[in-house]
Amino acid sequence: MSTEPARDPGSREPGTRSAWVTALKGGALLALLAVTVWYLIGHELPTVDEIRSFVEDFGAWGPLVFAAVFVLVAATPVPVTIMAVSGGFLFGMAQGSVVGVVATTLGAWLGYWLARFLGRDALYRLAGNRVEVVERKLVGKGFLTVLVLRPVVPNWTLSYGAGLVRIPQRDYLGATLLGGMPGQVSFAAVGAFTSRPSWPALAVVAASWAVVVVVGVLAWRRSRQDPGHDSRRAPDADGVGSTE
Q: How far is CA 124 from CA 33, 117, 192, in A?
């Protein structure tokens, strides 16, 4: 059984495109990150009240505009926390949770493909062998890896990294949705509690983060197991068991 990551049908080998195309695409990704960093350094993030005024200006289209902006924010290094809390503040805990989960998943998917399309060839030209080593280690472990890292690693870092090392899209999306759901529900509950204080909102926050901890611990323990490994008997090149 091959340990090589599955390749997309019809795709070129990474790093085989012309140097100028690779440089142009890699430069575009770096420019996107640079603009985001410039914004974060030179500007303050909007407050919940400012976001509410912005959404209200669009009238009936406000929720849709909010969701679209949320997706774009989730695809960049801009922290999504303020958007998630604002969703609960504006729309209530239930609707805010749905908007947060959907928007962060779509934004993470967009970030995944931005990094995969723009940065992967450049990464292979710079560190091809090391990237291949990482990809081989992640074969069959993409889902658990993302699930373990999702609650503790910034959304954009994980989405860009998963795209660059080509974690399978299905594994990435499934783990992103499952791993991000408790956090988004809790942020929406915080926003809902801010606008309409209630004990149920506080209970949801506590329960959501308890789920984050439990899922993270279970996934981490599962990721430490290697079902295909037998420490007592490893086959050598001739297929004969080795006792070393």
A: 19, 12, 45
131 by DSSP, 3-state: which? Answer: helix
Token reading at 79: 């922290």
- How many Cβ atoms from other residues are within 10 Å of residue 79's Cβ? 15
Q: Show Cβ contacts of residue 59 under 8 Å, excluding neighbours closer than 6 positions.
A: none
Tens of pLDDT along 60-93? Answer: 899 999 999 999 999 988 888 999 999 999 998 8
Residue with tokens 């009240």: 49
Q: Which two tokens stand for residue 95?
A: 């609707």
Choose among 202, 174, 190, 175: nearest CA to 83. Answer: 190
How confident is residue 146, by pLDDT bands cut at 50, 70 and 90?
A: confident
- The owner of tokens 């604002």 is 86
The DSSP letter of residue 14 is T
CA-to-CA separations, 62 to 45, 59, 66, 79, in angstroms, rounded: 19, 5, 6, 21
The C-alpha atoms of residue 178 and residue 162 are separated, in whole angstroms, by 16
pLDDT tens-digit series, residues 150-187 = 877 888 888 888 888 888 889 999 999 988 888 888 88
Q: What is the pLDDT of residue 64?
A: 93
CB within 8 Å of 11: residues ≥ 6 apart: none
Return mean pLDDT, the chain. Answer: 78
Sign, Cα dihedral of 155, 75, 193, 46: positive
Write phi, then psi, for 8 (nearest 5 degrees).
-70, 135
Residue type, 185: V
